[in-house]
Amino acid sequence: MPTNDNLVNPRPFLRFLSDAMIERIITEARDILSKLGIEIHNQDILANLQGHGAKVDKSENRVFLTDAIIDAALKTTPGSFKLYDVLGNETHDLSGYNVYFTPGSAALNLLDGKTQQIRKPVTADYVNYAKLVSVLQNIESQSTAFIPCDVHELISDSYRLYLSLLYCEKPVVTGAFTIEAFNVMRDLQIAVRGSAEELADKPLTIFSCCPTSPLKWSDVTSQNVVDCARCSIPVEFISMPLSGFMAPVTLVGTLVQHTAETLSGIVISQLTNPGAPVLYGGSPAVFDIRYETTPMGAIGTQMIDCAYNEIGKYLHIPTQAYISLSDAKQLDAQAGLESSMGATLAALAGINSISGPGMLDFESCQSLEKLVLDNEICGMTLRLIKGIQPKEDFPALPRFEELLREKHLLISEHTRKYLAEEMCLPGKVIDRANRTRWQEEGGLTLVERARTEVDELLGKYEPSRLPDKVKKELTGIMLKEARRCGMEKLPEILI
Amino acid sequence: MDLLKQIAMALQCGDSDGIGELLQQALDNKLAPKEILDRGLIAGMNVVGDRYKKHEIFLPEVLLAAKAMHMGMEKLKPLFLKDEVVARGRIVIGTVQGDIHDIGKNLVAIMLSGAGFEVIDLGKDVPPKKFIETAIEHNAKVIGMSALLTTTMPIMKKVVEGLKEKGLDGKIRTVIGGAPVSNEFAAQIGADGYGYDSVQAVDCIRKLISLS
Description:
The structure holds two protein chains of two kinds.
Chain A: H1 19-35, E1 38-40, H2 43-51, E2 55-57, E3 62-64, H3 67-76, E4 81-84, E5 90-94, E6 100-102, E7 109-111, E8 118-119, H4 123-135, E9 142-143, H5 156-167, E10 172-174, H6 179-193, H7 196-201, E11 205-209, E12 216-217, H8 219-230, E13 235-237, E14 242-243, H9 251-272, E15 278-279, E16 285-286, H10 299-314, E17 320-322, H11 333-349, E18 353-355, E19 359-360, E20 365-366, H12 368-384, H13 397-406, H14 413-422, H15 435-440, H16 446-459, H17 468-484
Chain B: H1 3-12, H2 16-28, H3 33-53, H4 59-83, E1 90-95, H5 103-114, E2 118-121, H6 128-137, E3 142-146, H7 153-165, E4 173-177, H8 183-189, E5 193-195, H9 198-208
Parallel strand pairs in B: 1-2, 1-3, 3-4, 4-5
């Protein structure tokens, strides 16, 4: 009988592309970047790239990226980086097959918990969201998940970050809507860290920066890449090819486009500041020709996500995807199945930062109730990727002797030692009661259970331990910015 | 913390060793056995039941507490006899004739014993007559029956009818449980209660004999 007690199984994982296929896709993307080039509507960046030897067609804002320039950028791109919470504690090691979940970001609408109707969110909603994320165990970072409508639109990006930094300690996935907003968003972070150097040393946020398909960067988003790189603030590139519309209909063709757009972002970043941290991310989608929509829950979309993650890994760059979310309009079966399918595929593929929890309706609607459901989905997938490992299981004979002797193993030392890590016990949103108990506890639907859970979790919230002095400084910065935009005061909130 | 509270707390932690020592101290301090049982052990067990229902603790913790309770009861039992105070009541329990699936029944027996009841476990494949005769012989207040198979569920009805024939319905209560059994089935066959899990089965029996 074998006596090897050190048997370990590999982490379960998913792969779509062979190395040869990845190499071919990258080669094709390079070919496009060198022969067709990429549009960048930012003269400073074009000048900088020209200075590095790239051919620029100024009349069309087009730059042609040679292999040499792309290779130079890839050479300095970090293979990993870490994130730290507002207190400076490490929370993320974005490397290898490590997996972290973050809520879907920048929704325009909120699915109201009480009415289950959509509406425009306000400051109080955002505060509740930040409080909720701070107690959700399987969501490791915040995102600036939706846009409060009770502040001037010019500060709606920085204001979200301000509220997040005030109410939740977790790092933040965010983004700036204008070039000017970046400065205040940087200053908010410097206030938390104490200095620009400290911020560069311990990143607090990731900025989403989106090229426009096909093969284009706007002035704002390309400048955001540059500004982040200068401050060593991590960037996630969010290339969004639409298969069959603004990209080839085939998944491979879409991957070629995604690769070209993402490589161009890496070039902008690394030629600005070699070594600036980036995530090889994206939010591609297959185009639904029946409804003219961009389904995030489509299997094709999720396959493209997993596959470009493989290309990112091949290039030794940590990865990100908007994948664990749904296009459903309500918290229904579709919402659950699309989000859990995405989360499962993403976790198996080893996407380092998985975006999406809480999100519905093509990334346009956040729901706190969905967020607590998705937190359970995330917990299950995190358990899944731990795989099946022996835990004092060999030799098996003594355990079975104990079972036959005691008639059950419910209070066995072995059970008590490994119960929590072997079993993934979900919260109250997931119903596992027998029918009679379920009925006695109110016969609640999933939406009702999620609603109750949101309230219970908000009751467990403890204020951020960020020092009051820093909180006041953040408010000072935000108020100054609000006044610049014509708002005399910020909405009333309780710290 | 007073001694009874310490006993209740040790019970909640499933600390069988600690219970033994604390009970001895309580007895040395001349506390009445009934007081130790009610305000120490049972008070602790009630907290355990509540916390289980609120999902704050799970079955292993409840069983550990039940085990500690059982140990405590064993220590107090001789003293009860002297004081003529019987445990919370006698329960006859078994898996019905034709059915050998007794896992759930075993769990209920442990929980009942942990809750301070005296349990007479008839095991599995128990004929209706055996349930009734044992209950009468031992002056039991409740008969608990389990079944996993739909084909053996009718045996439960036979026990209920057997008690009725002897004019014992209302005196000896019946509680049923098992995967295919439901509140509706209990009502249909005239059983007094239905336990959907082991902790709730104890609650159900407690209510039936008005001891809670």
